[in-house]
Design goal:
four-stranded antiparallel β-sheet, globular, alpha+beta, about 190 residues, 2 domains, 5 helices
Length: about 190
């Protein structure tokens, strides 16, 4: 999701307000993030007071900790962690009864999602994993359009004689995760 989408869905008005946005945008852009970047926001226990924004960039992962200090206003502390130093956990998915649960850990932040949010966690995790592996970051818009298409069902056949394609949400998500995590063919395995 883009940062503007996160701000629109903020659990409190202050967490996505213009005062916080002004401070955060300046900090993350100075560390190499594009305007309105693809990111993940980990809302804290007090989302109007504290939250963390993770932004994948070419040189590394920007981790921006935001806190609103009563009487003083918002503060943002950010760091750029080079890709070879980024700490991640496993990307795990569990599917049951047409529902999916995805979890992933990046820089001590646990990202979890169910169904549509699971696809968003997986898309973010796959961008982080691609960057760590030195591969180009997958395009955000192409991934989100595939996800929305798979939620609305299979595409309409071009003619009446074309067979209907059976689409399974879990199979689509699992295939995308498996394909992205497949090892690259770069020669014989090293020992």
């Amino acid at each position: 999701m883009r940062l503007s989408e996160w701000r629109a869905k903020a659990p409190t008005k202050d967490a996505g307000g213009p005062k916080v946005a002004t401070i955060v945008d300046a900090v993350i852009e100075s560390l190499g993030a594009e305007p309105d970047p693809h990111c993940w926001v980990a809302w804290g226990e007090e989302p109007g007071i504290r939250h963390t924004i993770l932004v994948p960039t070419d040189p590394g992962l920007v981790s921006c900790f935001v806190r609103v200090v009563p009487g003083e206003g918002p503060r943002a502390t950010a760091k750029l962690v080079r890709w070879n130093r980024v700490s991640i956990g496993e990307l795990a998915i569990e599917a049951q009864g047409g529902h999916r649960l995805v979890s992933f850990q990046a820089e001590q932040q646990v990202l979890r999602g169910v169904d549509v949010e699971a696809d968003q966690v997986a898309a973010f995790a796959l961008r982080v994993i691609a960057a760590i592996d030195g591969r180009p970051l997958p395009p955000v818009e192409a991934r989100s359009s595939r996800v929305s298409r798979s939620r609305t069902g299979p595409a309409k056949p071009a003619s009446r004689t074309a067979p209907k394609a059976a689409t399974s949400k879990a199979a689509t998500s699992n295939a995308a995760v498996t394909k992205a995590l497949a090892p690259r063919a770069s020669g014989p395995p090293s020992r």
